[in-house]
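Objective 1.3, modelling of assemblies. Example input:
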Amino acid sequence: MAGGSAGRHLGWAVLPLGVVLAVLFLWPVAQLLGLSFDSPAGPLGHYARILAVPAYRTALATTFQIAALVTLLAVLLAYPLAYLMATVPPRVAKLLTLCVLLPFWTSALVRTTAWIILLQRNGVLNALLTGSGLLEAPVAFVYNLSGVLIGMSHVLMPFVVLPLYGAFRGIDQNLVHAAETLGAGPWALCRRIFLPLTAPGVMAGATIVFMNALGYYITPSLMGGPAQTMVAQLIAFNINQQLDWGLAGALSLAMLLATLAVFFLFQAVFGLERLMGGAHASGRIGTPFALGPRGRSPGGRVMALLGAGVALFLIAPVLVVFPMSLGSSPFLAFPPQNFSLRWYEEFFSRPQWMASVWNSLTVAGIAVAGSTLLGTAAALGLSRLRGPLARLVETAFLLPMIVPHIILAIGLFGMMAPWGLVRGPWALGLAHIVVAAPFVVITVRAALRGVDPNLELAALGLGAGWFTMFRRVLLPGILPGIASGAVFAFITSFDDVVLALFLTNVRSRTLPKLMYEGVAHEINPTITAVAALIVLFTVLVLLLNLLLQRRAR
Amino acid sequence: MTEKDDPMRRSFLTRSARALALAATVLATLPAAAPAARAEELVFSSWGGAYQDAIRKAWLEPFAREARISVTEDTGPELAKIRAMVQSNSVSWDVVTAGGAGLMLGVQQGLFEPITDAMVDQSQILPGARNPYGVPSEIFSTLVGYSRRAFPGAAPASFADFWDVRKFPGKRTLPNKPATVLEAALLAEGVAPSEIYPTLSTPAGMERALNKIRALRPHVAVWWSSGAQPVQALASGEAVMALGWNGRFQAGMDEGLPIAMAWEQSIPQVGYFMIVKGAPNREAAVKFLRYMSTAAAQSRFSQYVAYGPARLDALPLIEPARLARLPSTPERLAHALFMDIEWWAKHGQEAQEKYTAVMQGN
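Predicted structure (tokens):
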């Protein structure tokens, strides 16, 4: 066959990521999980304890409930927004994409602080609701389940919105026209065209959200109440405050097994494979989906309005950051009583802030480059593997998302500190490659499923070599998947605290680590000034970009 | 000092630019640990923020000048990280800081060097604060802080008042960790200070403390996880009374927030400085601990944070206005229950598990 050896041996492309994960993930993590079988009460002592202590059992159940709820919310909220993004002019779509991604630029600590200011009993939202007479007495939105759900779905939603936006854009406009001509109403359109064709993107996004949500602990510990204690919080407690690594390992392994069980159950019941593989949205053939000449249907208008509401929800905490950063009180009073540039002065007078921004970008660069290359190759390889081996490899590639980062952090520290890697960006950069690669694997896998295999065969049959086919057919088809994978890798790296706490020192520390220093005692409002500056900078770059584009035309 | 990183940053730039192109090569050629033999140095690691700023100004900078030892600062001395350093023979810190619970746990795991009288003379240190593995750096207290707006008349004065929601109605905020809360609950029950830890050691006594917390649960607005939260909650009106640290309440009061503290009853805790086992600059570390624990040095720390000295002979060196802000004066210590860190080292995990269950509503 004209495909040549490159195509036939493509399965081997899973190897580089496989080796990296074996060395930098399986080995260090296995060492720590191994400790869970070593307790004074026999090899299963730690596990017996997990079953016996109510706090651990409750937290395990809570963790899965919260992760499932957050996933559901993220998917429900993502649909109208992705629809809106696909049906507005490209320039507005760019601005909306910015709304989706900006929250990550502000770092978890700033984000949660902003949410608390918005949601607390005497917060902005309650003032609005009671002031307008909608509520008689203020409602507690934060320090309970609603706080956790708001905080987590806010930060995890981009993982669904971006693939979903890609899926919407991948729908052939002619298909929609044809259906409309044949008399399909909005509901039939939605059920027969939009839902099936966006399913692969949604499943990819939902998988990422669910796996990620299972390991959350900073947002729930700041925005939730004790009833929302998640397993990762208890793992971190046993690692850091009790040095009981055996029990922490047992909790991690229990979580890991439960997650895998849920994963397989989900596949068996709902046929994840079928859903993801069923639709071949051959996006590159027709015109990308956009708003038709007849404008929006009433249903479409409702969807668009909902989408705008979701965009506002995403951007709300970022908007609060600006007035916060201009307040003079270190206690983040809102609205600020006196305005001052105190925290901006603090930022510019202390080079540590700029240095940490720079460190963050360096580490993210390593993470994005490494994980995009390795993840894309692995996804290509996976697409050629068949049978149980493929399933095993694919699941193995997702493991770094499920294992709590603190377990990985300790394992990697023991490996890397003796080599002096902690003093530069490498220890953290490599760790971020490990945790970011699964995102790329998932998004590129989903994109590959959207590429019509007949196109591939046609190109090869017409005499194109494998690499030519890859460059001309496959690569353009999966480029959106690679791009969203790279974006996910960047925000994963840029937002990480847990790995940074262990794998950097005072010279190589990243921005999130610097923000978390001293947080046991106080929250330094300089972090709000940093967040505001980064947001301003990003927005400026985008506006400049839009302006130049207009000029060029 | 550590802040002047400009050349370092530039080297990151060039290094990473090259590295991104030739990742594998650079990785292979990265130098392993090879510090050149220089003048005496010391690596100090603490929790960053205002706390480490205070340590720097009060102790690190004058020590570096006077002893001619160059001090490098690092941050984030998590016990887990210290343990990973010790286990992988890559200890890069000499002196680290921790609270009592952290100190005891590290001692159990063999992470710290013993500190003998020949190394540091601790004879003048408050007896309740001494420890064979750590040198006390400061005293801080857990006590009741309240909103002056909520209680303009009769103000709460004790832990019993904290629990009395009829006399002092309104939401409360408590730490999400049991240390000091279990003690406060039993003190509110009227248990004598000397009987607190013996009582907590019995299952019935522990249950009594937990029940007291269960009773207050409907009135708890926030279970706080960071020291800034209780002050924030009092300022925003989310809570009217908080169990928190005196230094944080004081910082809020200094910023003009309408907060006051009930000094009649308090639970002092001690901050410690330790030498990590296998510290690369052990001699310099001993010199620093000796310097930091002198009366003169101890009296300086409270210029920067409202934490008290760990030795009484430092008190006369502090001006009276500042003294009024500190927890370790003889009058305040007379009504205080020092937190028993050995008890917490032994029962901490079990207490946390039970406390978590109570917070979860069980």
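The domain at 38-139+270-323 of chain B is CATH 3.40.190.10 (D-Maltodextrin-Binding Protein; domain 2).
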